[in-house]
Amino acid sequence: MSTISVLSLSTASHAQIGIGISVRVGPPALPVYAQPLCPGPGYFWTPGYWAWSDDDGYYWVPGTWVVAPVGMLWTPGYWAFSDGFYGWHGGYWGPHVGFYGGINYGFGYGGVGFYGGEWRGRSFFYNRSVTNVNVTNVTNVYNRTVIVNNTRNVSFNGRGGVEARPTPQEERFSREPHNAALAAQTQHEHAARQNRQLFASENHGRPAIAATAKPAEFNGPHVQPARAAGAPYRAPKITPQEARGQAPGNRGGNRSSNETTRNGGNGNGNGRATARPGNDSRNNNPKNDPRNYDARVRNQEARNPQPRSFDARNNQPRNGGQMTSRDNPRPNRQERPAAQNQPRAVQERPANANRTPARPEQRRNPPDPRH
Question: Are 244 and 263 in contact (CB under 8 A)?
Fold first, then answer.
């Protein structure tokens, strides 16, 4: 049975699926614990990690075995320090293991790649040198020595932690199609959040439940407690609410990779920005001000007087029944209501081309459909 110093990571510059959470205090060191026995064929090890709660700070999500999607490998999530914030980069399933901050999670996750097993067709084979399997229950095994140079217990990537950068191969793997965490993994994390003894403020970096044989099984003989904290625990000097923040490059709000946008900008539900009325250049153009319309019409008719005929039945211009912006301008704020009640005989009187053109008579227009 192998033991491990599990390390939590943080890097804000090389996220495969983006930063989910950013805080001003770093996670505790990953605890030292043993790996539970593999429950059976097809199970895949997912290492434990420190997750964040806005109410109570960091809490430990125990490492556990999950039934893996055929042909897929798990890239663990990691914490990364950048520009004064610790950002969380969620894990994912993919055909290869990508960058996970250079952190030594152990049990095949030494900081680069994965050496705990491999897929051969539709069967997963386990490397017995770094995983805890019972050959009676699991026969797909092999032995391959793994040398890990990184034995530090720091829990994040970046300044003060593991200063690793993705290799060209890891960058290529990060562009492959990925799948999010399984439902069992999500439920496992939620169950951990409900357990007070898993919060760092309670266990001081040494959780009583460091690893489990199956997701959310926090009781029983296969639960492994932490043997030791990865480093002396230092309680944060600020509250979790004060620690929460938005790291540069994550201005859209702190959220997990599967959450919908909660703190969006001027969105209208279809990805387009909603313009502010006061900032519309069309509204700021004096030519489009409806209050200037009457003055333009009077000046134009003074230069080119034209007779206009009306339909006496509905008091509308004879233009084929089509309403245009010229026929239906916005109401002038300076109009007097009495002008709208002129006798019908006056409105039906045709204009006289030989007389000096007078101001057009006011007439009632149907309501503007835009209002």
Answer: no
Q: What is the pLDDT of residues 144-163, one digit of tens each?
A: 999 887 777 889 999 999 99
Residue 70 is classified by DSSP as T
Q: How far apart are CA 361 and CA 112, in angstroms?
A: 84
Q: Per 3-state DSSP, what percentage of the chain is helix, strand, and coil (rounded to 5)?
A: 15, 20, 65
| Residue ranges in the chain whose pLDDT is less than 50 | 1-17, 250-288, 290-291, 297, 302, 307-355, 367-371
Query: Of 177, 106, 134, nearest to 39 (Cα)?
Result: 134
The contacts of residue 198 (CB under 8 Å, 6+ apart) are 59, 60, 61, 62, 192, 207, 208, 209
Quote the distance between the C-alpha of residue 361 and its chain's center. 60
**Single-letter code of the amino acid located at 27:** P
Question: Across the strands, what pairs with 316?
Answer: 311
* Region for 102 from its dihedrals, namely left if φ exceeds 0, alpha if ψ lies in -120 to 50, beta otherwise: left
Residue 356 — φ and ψ, nearest 5°?
-65, 125
Angstrom distance (rounded) from CA 27 to CA 59: 9
Q: What is the DSSP letter of 116?
A: S
Type of residue found at 240: P
Element (H, E) at 170: helix 168-174
Give buried/exposed letters for 35-72 (b at 16+ CB in 10 A, else e): bbbbbeebbbbbbbbbbbeeeebbbbbbbbbbebeeeb
* Closest C-alpha among 241, 219, 185 to residue 63: 185
